[in-house]
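User: Predict the complex.
Assistant: Input components as received:
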Amino acid sequence: MEAHISTAEQVLLTTDGIPLKDSLKKTERRNKIKAFLLVFPLLLFIIVTFVVPIFDMLGRSIDDSQINQVYPKTFEEYGKWDKKADELPPEEVFKAIYFELGTGDKIMIGRALTRMNYSKSGWKSLIKKTQRQIKKDLKAETVITSYKDRLIEINEKWADRTYWYAMSQMINERTPIYYWNALDRTYDAEMNVVRQSEERRIYVKTWIKTFKVSVYVTFFCLLLGFPVAHLLANLPLRYSNLLMIFVLLPFWTSLLVRTTAWIVMLQQNGVINGVLVWLGILCDDCRIQMVYNETGTLIAMTQILLPFMILPLYSVMKVIPPSHLRAAANLGAKPFTAFIRVYLPQTVPGMSAGGLLVFVLAIGYFITPELVGGKDGQLIGHWIAYHLKTTLNWGLCAALGAILLGIMLILYWLYNRIVGIDNIKLG
Amino acid sequence: MEDFVKFERIDKSYDGEVLVVKDLNVDIAEGEFLTLLGPSGSGKTTTLMMLAGFETPTNGEIFLKGTPISKIAPYERGIGMVFQNYALFPHMTVQENLAFPLEVRKVPKADAETKVKAALDMVELGEFGTRFPAQLSGGQQQRVALARALVFEPQLVLMDEPLGALDKNLREQMQYEIKHIHERIGITVVYVTHDQSEALTMSNRIGVFNDGVIQQLSTPDVLYEKPENSFVAQFIGENNKLTGTVKSVNGQYCEVDLDSGGSTKALKINVDSVGQKTQLSVRPERISVGADNAENQFTGKVEELIYLGDHIRVRLNVCGSNEFIVKISNEGNISFKEGDNVDVSWAADDIRALDL
């Protein structure tokens, strides 16, 4: 017994007496290095263009450090203010902000202003007016006994405590405010999370719409793509090649051209309405509104994303032997039963791959809804672009993007739990 | 007794130009093991597919127990089938595969379970029920396919080259297994193969297909011993062929002048008149070497000796044919070597004058 165990624990040696594991490692090392060098450029590229920007974005979505660099002293003194005891902050706070506005870097203050305006509109004009006056004071070397009185003298809004309350949102270098904004929430004066005022609630509605449209688009793609993929997989090569060209044709056409083509087709004086009126199905005054709304977004996105459903489905169907359906028939299954029990389960990897692909593309889609969506066909991508280019509220942009990323990761996780990620087949 | 399966004047064409099956008339008795044997493209699989219902005869009718079945859909025929690549459903376990035909027939669950278990035991795979087909070896998959074709107790089972994908040893083992299962449950089997030894091992009768026509339909021994035309003689077993012209006819024998000179007496099978060209066929084991025989004696030069243990294959140059094979059973008395000239002879009853 003893001896048996000791032999089992003995280190295996090669013929030359080197431990087998070391020898194996040595021979494998060269291959590993080669393999690594081969993928290294791509790895670097992905890190630089993909991983770094994503983490940068995630950082921006909670970042509030810039404003802290502009008002370090003010915020320090602000922390000492006992809001219950005093109506307004103590004199030290007024003094700190007086000097930080008077001597601070103009560009930095300007940037911080944008941030301040997110927490309360009105900051911008207040600071600008005050700053001008302080500059004059400093030039004239005016002697000031009470900075508090002086500031209130410059602009009476300095006595409005809602402005001072709004400042508390910016004190920390990390803030969840952008995430709350992305969900139509904000802080009230006491730093409680509350819903935005009625007319500013846009994001939750848009999130729901984005989801709804993505689910519909995925569903319609599956509905339309399944028979096409089946046909592609089962036609003689001659015809299936031709059909494949029709499926791929959209890939060779600009996305913009395809989208604008849908406008031409769907608009009220467009081709479809024209034909319907000409056939007498519609009267001239009751032309259907099919574009610049959600319907338009749905139709155009379904058409544009269809190939992403067809191709994975096709690749899966192509390898299902026709003998399976024959076997099912031979074993007594009617065509419908054979399809449901034998064919359909074997296409699941293709359906799920296509479904995931289409859904992920749809949820972040931008150009098509932007062009054909009109006012109520806009998805979340529209607001990300809007804040990125128009309001320059990058924090909110980043938060919206991060939520989108989070949703996709959750979906992916769910998918893995339910279907299994190794069940996916992209071709 | 009425024939179990009857093919009546069946023609089949896919493109309206070429007939893949021509005027097929076959009767299959109940409980018979019939093999359709032939080279690829000879129409044997098409015939099977017509019986299964996956192809429609262009002309004629197939009867199953007296009922015409051309208009009956495949799923209503109740014929079991083992496919070439087994066609096991990869997303179902072995049990689920076997239960499938019972489920679609709405067999009660308890009943179905018993039958599945019995079928699995029959092919000796009782413990593999919960595995998926991909987790089984080729031979095991083959058995599952066989069990699935039998589990719903069809009266007729079709097999389309079921052993084609197996290696040689396993194939031979499976041949016996299928043969024994057939004998045990007395089912009617129609089997398609291009492997003649497979056909000879298992079948009650073999139909040799060529060019869409059954060349000869007979028991294995008759096919081998008494081929009726040169294709069958060539396709089944090893065969030496010589060509010649019929010189005279004498009852069931004829005298043939060989093209290479000399003449031999042969059985008259497929020739009618004097002057007709003929192909003579004689089996390698029916030729005697060195024996002093009055008739049909020729001299040949030994080109090659191949030692095969129980017998020795001798390749000779006889009557202008360089591929003349003789099998001599190994009794330790082979006295000649390569390059020697030896006498070869055969009995008139062993050489058959066939069509050319």
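The radius of gyration of chain A is 32 Å.
Let me know if you want any component modeled separately.
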